[in-house]
## 1
Amino acid sequence: MPAIRIDGRKLASAHLDRLQAEITEFAEQFGAGPKLAVVRVGADQASASYARQIRRTFERRGASSVEIELPGDADTERALAKIRRLNTDPEVHGIMLQAPLPAGIPWRQVADAVAPEKDVDGVTSTNLGLLAAGDGSAMPPATPAGGMEILRDSGVRIVGSLATVVGRSNVVGLPMALMLVRAHSTVTVCHTRTPDMAAACRSADILCVAAGRSHLVTADMVKPGAVVLDFGVNFANGKMVGDVAFEEVARVAGAITPVPGGTGPMTNVCLLANTLLAARRAMDKG
């Protein structure tokens, strides 16, 4: 039997309807909806595409998103100065720093310049540390948080499952592993030095792929009936493709997210939810 194609857009729609009602209530109380600033350095194609998706999602639901684009030759201090200005702007409730940054600009230094209370993508050391500690005040990274919502909405059994995460980035792979562990899954994390990644993937009931390499995972690497979440965003011949060879893996897996239309829409849901949460916290603090 072919795999169930998990429709991320459909799953996201119900969440967005709920969030829109909450945003309307927030705007009526405070005069405007929550506002996100998306900071991008350079002209990465995938980042630009994602920023456009974010803006459309936010505007349709009563929030706002502005893109702050710095040129590819901007230096670290210029990026830091922009982040600092956004930190002190009372109209901006959330800040998202898009990866990748150009060579020579240290990701950790710039990411940690974002005020933790405005870190709606959960990339600062503060929020990552709180997530690792199981602290409920952590602002979870939107992409893995969206992945967890997809699993729950799809009725996937997480408790007691074996999960493999391919990729160990602080933005997707590691926080996804942490969230799965907190949800009582037993997790293996694979990376470029994993000796037999295929075997680790084949053992998984839940396979999450966030490596940034198109069609890295093939059918022979997937356990029959497994649930496969593809977080990859790659471009080949002008077409967006994932990290999973979709057509062949769909013949083996039990359920799979496509690219596009899989994890991406739910990522935007969680980013919007985090921005609303940050706005509420800011208003509570006065």
## 2
Amino acid sequence: MTTRARDRSATGDDARDLWDPVFQGRDPGERERAARDALAREWERVWELPLSFLRDKYQAAGMGRDTLPPLDAIPRTSKAELRENERRNPPFGTHRAVPLEHAIRLGSSTGTTGKPTLIFYGARDLEVHIEVGVRNLWRHGVRRGDLFTHSWPQGIYPTNVAGGRTYLAAGVVEIGVGPPVTPEVAAEHLALWDLLRPDAFMMTSAQLRTYEEAEARAGVAVTDLLSGRILVFLEASCQFPHPRLRLEKAYAVSIRNIGGASEIPGLATSDCRFHTGLHAAGDHFILQACDPDTGRELAPGERGVLVVTAFDMDACFIRYDLEDVVVAASDPCPCGETGPRYTLLGRSADVREVAGRKLLPVDVQLALEEFGAPEFRFLPQSTGGALDLEVESDGRGSAVKDVLQLSLGVPVEIKEVETGTLPRSTFKPRRVMG
């Protein structure tokens, strides 16, 4: 069959690493000064806009309009606090800088870890969302005229609310098929891709497994579709060399990792071809990896929760704790981008503390690499002092247990199940029970 796979050894203007090299590659000192000035403007907005939730919070901490506190001194805000604010002040709370009557678009998170969050976009929010999206597409290696397909949710999920505008701005043809919610739907996606032969794909690791399981039904091999293409991938373990290289070799594909937060306009992050961490837009975000207890910023390389401060948009997020566990980077990236960069490890809600160690699903994934990264999940914590896991091990449970205990440095108990028996997510993988 004829293939559209483009020669990725681009030359000339298409070969540059950054969409806007001058702006994205600004001197770090200049960028940091601009961010500090923008933070001062955001502080003013808190007292000018109808944001009584934030004003009350800051006044209770002894802060006022006239003095901008050090960033670390500003109290963090969590999603749980915003939900409680909406419960006390229905229906939309008193924390929104863009009220419903001023919104030009509406969106919603998926609610992967709880109740979906409604998002009200102002005009500037949408502009930022589109600009960041174009930068990410370029960073992925996607170019004008390419066909880009993705399995992201539709409806009022941000991909559908603003994504089409991003692809139009980049000159890229979007093929949004939605999640593979059933084996039949997954097979339909494979058949469509076999016909169109997209240049780049975006999916999660759970979705990739679903498509592989639908190959026989569709009569289409996933490896054939992906060979020579770009795979924009949501899978924490593939930020690390061994898992990424294993998959790149298996599918003859070029992987780009992604992250972000749907409730914050424009907070879509991705790594570059050098795979040094997920890049964020430094002209709109200050990112901190903070101690989950004190809220103080940690040194680069230490695990902390991702705390986001946004600026120069309609939305207002100051020290918003995403409760994602990350490691921030400070060394220069060879691609030339000077904005914030981090490695995403997982959700703080998924942390299991065993024998004094705080473990995430990605820690288990990396330890399971030598077994081909079988699917697994954390079982509810027992009182036995061990990490309890359910693993698709096909009779290798004893070996899996030994490797995990050695790698993680904690006692491990394994419940073996056959390959393909653990539940498959249609979007983001969930590897934690209870």
## 3
Amino acid sequence: MVLVHGVGFGPDSVAPLALALREGGAMVLVVERRGYGSRAALDPPDDVGAHVEDVIAAMDAAGVARATVAGMSGGATVALAMAITRPDRLVRAVAHEPAVGALVPELGQLVRGALAQGGGAALVRALAGPDTWAGLEVAERDAVVRRALLVER
């Protein structure tokens, strides 16, 4: 299984899921998108196709020909794009809360308003919701704030 994180929270957000899957015997590859983790110095690509190619490159490096690709938020969008453009590399795509703002005008209003009021960190807080945000550890909230410019891009 290949896990693709979303924007804002980074690869650490899928670590508990990766651990649980591995404990259950699954082979799990966590893709670190450009701008995060060991790839933090790299600017993220502007188009989802480049993210798909990054996932394929990570699979190739790990010797994985086909896999279930699961993502959340922006990672879900990458998984769906991969299902459309590279079905030959997929067993299945799992998309948790894909970024579909164009389909939901209220979400677009939330995004624009949060960005205008407080930038990328405010956007992630708004999308997470007050209860989820309050439940995060201080270190997790600090990591989101550090990634605010990446979210804005």
## 4
Amino acid sequence: MLIRACIIALCLLGQTALAAEPETVLRLFIWEDYFPDTVLQSFEAKHGIRVEQVYYETDELKNETLVNTQGGEGMDLIVGSRASFREYVSNDWLSPYPHAVPENFRHIAQRWLPEGELRNVSVPYLWGTVGIAYRADKVPAPLTTWQDIFRPAEALRQKIMMINDSRDTLGLALKSLGYSINSTDPKALKEAEKLLLAQRPYVKSYSYPELDETSQLVTGEIWASLLYNGDAIALKEVNNYIEFVIPDSGTNLWIDDIAVLKKSAHQQEAWAFINFINEPENAALIASYLYYATPNQGATKHLDKSFLKDQRIYPSQATLENSEFFKPLSPLQNKQRNDIFLKVTK
């Protein structure tokens, strides 16, 4: 009888321990609508780990959140522009690769691997461009150049949306004037400031369109906007009158990385997540769902030929040659740009 009572007690104790065992949750800091639920669900089912997404609107707002949380306290993984990640390395916010490098990293094309301070810290996620999305049924003529949005036709007054980010909006204003998006020349910055102030009456808001049927581009509240290429393609699925153009003069060529935050309490699980999304089939699912190019060369055989030939996703060589990545700026240079942007948007 005593033995039986002990067995029952041990079983109950085991059940209590199992019930009390906390669920592992990975918190992913990312733009909204930037990760397909199907891939998240596959990871959760395979690893028994839940993934929660925490959203930010722009790189600059992301940076503010990281500062306020002392480098992402309470979060595990972060997706963002490679340009912003360089600052995170200097702040010691990112974890280096584990000793045993995840096996699926071998699928990433050499040309997209990070270099310098980001080597062995961040992992390529997606790459793409910024262009002009516009309502072909509303604008008086097709928009084909940067000047078409920075020096807009009168019909576009209060019908334009610009990205609420100084690097994108000010950088492309510089591009429209024939300068590098990375220019720090005072004369060039002054010209770009003057251009943006003249454009201001035509801008309805400095933000980013919704990406569903409520989008301001879909409803006609705005007729033109700076937009990331994949988002423009997604919106065209909702309203076929939405067109997207990358001016021949080139654009901002961006790459987003994913990394593990040093303050993560789940380092092993976080690296398992990054390894999982770099399985070629999963990388292809992410790219095709979001309409962005993947740096994962193993994913190519899992993508439709029409996807790979779409120049909105994979731009022509000429466009790539005229485009630029953002380069690191000093704190003073960043302040100069932010001061200009605040003067324009206030």
